[in-house]
From TrEMBL:
This is sulfate adenylyltransferase. PROSITE patterns: G_TR_1, G_TR_2. CDD domains: CysN_ATPS, CysN_NodQ_II, CysN_NoDQ_III. The keyword Protein biosynthesis does not apply.
Amino acid sequence: MGTHTAHTTEPSTPGAHHERDLLRLATAGSVDDGKSTLIGRLLYDTKSVLADQLAAVERASQARGGDAVDLALLTDGLRAEREQGITIDVAYRYFSTATRAFVLADTPGHVQYTRNMVTGASTAELAIVLVDARHGVVQQTRRHAALAALLRVPHVVLAVNKMDLVDYSQEAFTAIAEEFSAYAAQLGVTAVRAIPVSALTGDNVVERSTRMPWHAGPTLLEHLEQVPVHRDAATEPFRFPVQYVIRPRTAEHPDYRGYAGRITSGSVRVGDEVATVPGGVRSRVAGIDTFDGPLAQAHAPRSVTLRLEDDVDVARGDTLVATHPATTVGTDLAGTVCWLAQAPGAPGARVLVRTGTRTVRGVLQEVGPLLDVDTLRLEPVSGPLALNAIARVRLHLAEPVLLDEFADHRRTGTFLLIDPLDGATLAAGMAGRSPLASSVEVPGRCRAQ
């Protein structure tokens, strides 16, 4: 298993999805809670499985001696995984209904793959936490809930699976739902929807169960279709990391200069005043161009090309921001990281720090304290950060960057630490104060000498 690496590159969303409302979600659960079967059921019952895929799964199920289609095989993408009976990768699945399109990050349940959960849930607007109705809330359940809270996932679904193995007991479901909700409340997670399901039989996944008439709430798919999608345009200031400067230099457009990128939060109109970060130069938006023609206004997550009234110095790595409220720019970056690499993270290490489209050199000045996701306490560290560790860090950067706090700006408040020698990703970070309000700061930091 040690030879496998996390698949962290999300394929582009199929074109058929782009006009529909899009929900990004992640799944998490302990080993053998039935997560792969649940995802397979969603894909199968929403008719999101191609004929050749279904035929391959049917053949694999028969080879295993099964009478029914093993829906878990729809999500166990690697052959080695299927042969070993385990899932150890992060894979992105796509499915859609008449109401909404979905991008689902399937993350493994093993303790040693905490980093995969962080990767998969980092952009999710909803997390499905699976529990086995026979076992209830276990340590890994609490760990996944803590990570969802750490990553500020707006909505959490508790899917109590395998209800068929507890005779569809309302009492068993209620006890689990109450225990999980109480724990989630300690994390500051209040938007929890508990749903009793059986992925194997399909009860309350897509179709409403006749075996659990006591459940008056929605099925899992109904909830996924109805949950409000977080809209940055209504809640966050404008942010536009510049990916590319367009200078066509054609006879038709001899003076054209546009800044291409994706609006990560907020909205922008022609005539709005914006500022460059880190330069701080102000100008106004002269035009908003797209492949389909100009727009008067655009909002997240639209990809556009912006033209400014003034000839200002803007390059890839800069960010165009709203002038109100004021932004913070600096060279001292503090935050919480999940260590993703086998190589340890020690104070004094030289790294590359990527925020948005900007990459600068930096030094890892302080490491710790360490977050214990089981107790939700920040504990002293006794050495370098190891794989899957979650800890507070402080970095000093060679150049100023935008210092958005993750708690307020979930997209621009993130950063990556990269090995300058081989380009490997070392850590994924969330800038600013600890996202877990219940975490307790304690002494015990390691400082670079």
